[in-house]
Amino acid sequence: MNVLITGGASGLGAAVARRIADDGGRPLVIDLHPPKYDVEHMQADLTDRACAERAVHSLARQAGGLDAVVTAAGIDACGTLAAIPAEDWERVIQVNLLGTAAVVRAALPYLVHAPNGRVVTCASTLGLRALSDATAYCASKFGVVGFSRALAAELAGQVGVTMLVPGGMDTAFFDGRDEQYKPGPDAQLNRPENVAAAVAYALAQPPGCEVRELVVCPAREPSWP
């Protein structure tokens, strides 16, 4: 199985890539930064649609096609709407929502010809529940929720679509934030490997069977339900 993974240099994306490889598949990574482990990859800025499209087509041709896409790339910009620079706020939307759409759009010609083509989008519990000082992230992830549900209806019977809704994970995603926006010392965060196992489960469903939406969060996730 050839699986294209955005954000595969670290965090959830890297965990998904490793799980795919462990299961005998072929992970293909797109990330702004080069992965620190051995994997086929291309560097691309998802805010640049043409760059993202080139990376998708290049990796797909290199692998002889795609069986699945997992859009794990994501960034954040914490703070009140008035405090966040406009360019930082808009970049969150560009990476999380527009980048997701660009990659999936470019991958569709390959997925529709795969025996069991699938897309797994990465939303968030904050795509279903709004939180103060998270307007950019919530807007982007609420958008991913709408995009994923509409895409599932559009591609029904052609390409399977799973919307992953992860809660807090123990990754570098929180690094560099002001202390008030970091998980507390007693926060219970999921290991990305656990969430990657859920992604692998969705990808492993037989033709005609789909996991449409999948919430994976710590038992004491504060943002869910």
Automatic annotation (TrEMBL):
Pfam family, one: adh_short
CDD domains associated with the record: SDR_c (cd05233)
InterPro entries assigned: NAD(P)-bd_dom_sf (IPR036291), Sc_DH/Rdtase_CS (IPR020904), SDR_fam (IPR002347)
PANTHER family named in the record: SHORT-CHAIN DEHYDROGENASES/REDUCTASES FAMILY MEMBER (PTHR42760)
Record-stated family: Belongs to the short-chain dehydrogenases/reductases (SDR) family.
Protein name: SDR family oxidoreductase
